[in-house]
Amino acid sequence: MKRILILYIILLFNASSFANTLEDVNISADTLSKYLFSTLSSAWEFNPFDNPQFADTSFNTENRQHIKTRLDSEDEIPRGWNGIGWFRRWVNVDSSLIGKVIGISLWQAGALEVYLNGDKLFEIGKVGSNADDYEAGFERGPNTIVFNKPGRNLIAVRYANFDLEYFHNATYPAGFIFSFGEHGKLVESSLRFVRERSVYQLFFVSVPLAIAFVHLFLFLFDRRTKDNIYYVVFLLSFTFFIYVNLQRSFVEDVYYAALFLKLNAFGLLATITTGSLSIYSIIRGVPRWFIWFGVAGITLSVLAFLFTGPVVWYSSYAYIMIISIPTGHTLWKKRKSGLGGEWIIRTGFIFMSVMGFTNMLQSFDIVPPIFGIVGLYTYGVLGFIISMSASLARDFFVVNKNLETQLNTVKELSEKTLEQELQAKEFETTQRILEADNDRKTKELDEARKLQLSMLPQCLNDIPGLDICFDMKTATEVGGDYYDYFISDDGTLNIAVGDATGHGTKAGLMVAIIKSLFNALGAKMMIPDFFARCTAILKKMNLGNLFMSLTIVRIKNKYLIASTAGMPPMLIYKHDKNVVEEYTLKGMPLGAFEGFEYDEVELELDSGDIILLLSDGLPELFNEKKQMFGEERIKELLIRNNDKSPDQIVNLLYEEAEKWRGEKSQDDDMTFVVIKILD
Question: Helix or strand or coil: residue 143?
Fold first, then answer.
């Protein structure tokens, strides 16, 4: 019915077209930054049984139904649907998105649970196995998802809706729509959507109501001007139609949204009927036989509310055509009153027709949105409303010279509206400039981050007797942590782990300086002497309150020498004792005080021992309850996982950090160097 009545609908919602394909959906940082939404294809694998195994990545889904998740009224009900079922879709995730928070935009008419690779992420509403345990849910803001592995990931949705018939009778989608996007942009889009719809509703409801009040008073002051009261009824019908269309954007109950959609037919038919009534009244007078149009319009409105189907749709379409043809013909006749001014209403009618035709072309993607505006027919109807108001105002001016006050009111209202539009456009331009500048800065920081990461080594397993893994997770684009290594001519392995003051570009500068000094002097001096030399050089550079904490470890033939300048304790898991020993060497950060004497520790290592060097990012990580992670949890993790490889231990440390901080953001860089002594 929406497509058949597209020439007369006031508010246009363009429906996206999806291909019925099961090819994997690819998402990456690039696609999410270019497009606000990355919507999953409407073709999903469907299981009509409430089987949790459907969320398992290894579950066999051959010969399953492939259906659209919207469950539109024009689509057939899925085979075996009894109110609940499972949907699933594979997505290819780019490695650039791993560990990052991604927004999920969800629209649904029922209740659902979302799973990622078999793990439940969140629930909207209450998904029950029957109607008694079921409760539809609603969330306006976006949810979030974090992918922990690149490549293929399985999105599974357990969806329930025991009221398909209710929504289909309202020609309302009974399923759900699933989209990815940048979380910040999704939040911004949600807020902008509500704001724009609020302004749209305020404008297209308040302006017709204001005009209606003016003409109502004109009628009350002179009861002989029935043109005004007919026009007021038309404006109220139009206002009701606009209200029920836009109010669906604000309700928090999909059942009310479906109800408002069912009321659309009443609002549309009432608007067209009362509009024709008003035109007849102004041009030629209302004929007696017009009452049959009113009866037919009311009857069709009730039928469209109670029933759906082609008979009601075609009947409504035929009614609109039948009433529009003689009404349009009447516009080109001379006015019976002899007051003239027919050109005013004709101009508004032509404008409305042009806007309606353009709107139809836009709905079929033949013509793009003009200045980003969709629903042009609404503006066309508003232009026609204004032309009718101007015609009635002119009539009153001819009959009574006192109408000048009312005309000034209309003029002031138009000027205020134009001023608001100009302010809105100016604000939009400013926002675009700020967004462009922010994108530029973000790109520059990302390039700096890539440069920093390229300077850091990767995990090693080609050094005889050692298995080593390095890793760092920065709190901002450019981190302040540092790790490095090189092998001396005599085979000694030199490893450095550091933490510059703060993070960001200044910290990145300090990292670059220390890396250069470590590569140039790190193997030529005793570790305390190297620390003293670095402090002297940094002092001469006048870097202010910019310091560098640093730990240097030298390993050769299972013998270790280490010294620390302001870093957390070095943790060593002793395989023969099954304990973690903590070595705390007090020392001031590099660049702080000259002449400070640094201590050294010398140890013998055995096969199976594990050395953990780290910055303070994990020990001092706070959770949502403001509790610190601490070093004891790290020791327990080393003991429990002493049989794991260094890269596995690093991954476990990151996982524990994510669980610990929960929704709280990462405030500091986290760096780990894990060294395992092999046979």
Answer: strand
